[in-house]
UniProtKB/TrEMBL annotation:
PANTHER family: FANCONI ANEMIA GROUP E PROTEIN (PTHR32094). GO terms for cellular component: Fanconi anaemia nuclear complex. One of its GO terms (biological process) is interstrand cross-link repair. This is FANCE protein. The gene is Fance. It comes from Leptocoma aspasia.
Length: 193
């Protein structure tokens, strides 16, 4: 298990995850495993945390057709509390690239943004969302980001405003888009002209 923190053992870590069947293990075990991960010293490397985020959560999150169980939510929340940056890199990107409505995935992303992610990771979520064409599915995620009222770096705020301006014609009848624009103008009124 010392492989978890060793920076040179990523193929072995993937093999260990496969051997332990972490992607399909029972959710109560997943909660205990995440608690154990948080207690590891030293902390996991970024790459190790990203591999574990993928092995532990990716399949589960992408296959959600109803709200996550309390066990899965507890595991996600605990993992995010310490490794939110690699978690976002793996999971948010995959959810955004997933075709279709993805209603449960969108709700989960909103909940994580609102309650679990550190400010730097909230900015990462925003960057990831702005790298793909906006859709109705993504508007609640942007709304959740704005609800945090985090101070955004000027270049990220500029990108948000530019994206909204460029994609506005596709949302002329969208109430969600109108609410999003209003939120941007309210939260960042001193920086948006």
């Amino acid at each position: 298990l010392s492989l978890m923190s060793h920076p040179l053992c990523h193929p072995q870590l993937e093999g260990l995850c496969s051997f332990l069947q972490l992607s399909t293990c029972p959710e109560p075990f997943l909660v205990r495993f995440c608690s154990w991960l948080l207690a590891l010293s030293p902390d996991l490397s970024y790459t190790s945390a990203a591999i574990l985020a993928e092995q532990l959560f990716l399949r589960r999150v992408l296959s959600l057709t109803q709200p996550p169980s309390r066990h899965l939510m507890a595991a996600l929340t605990s993992f995010c509390s310490k490794y939110s940056h690699p978690f976002c890199r793996v999971l948010v990107a995959a959810v955004l690239q997933e075709p279709g409505e993805g209603a449960e995935q969108t709700k989960l992303m909103c909940e994580l943004v609102e309650e679990c992610l550190e400010p730097r990771s909230v900015q990462l979520v925003l960057r990831e969302v702005l790298e793909v064409p906006l859709s109705e599915k993504l508007l609640p995620v942007l709304q959740a980001v704005l609800g945090r009222q985090e101070v955004l770096p000027p270049e990220l705020l500029d990108l948000l405003v530019l994206t909204l301006c460029q994609q506005a014609p596709a949302f002329t009848t969208s109430l969600s888009f109108a609410k999003l624009v209003t939120a941007v103008l309210t939260v960042y009124q001193s920086q948006v002209s």
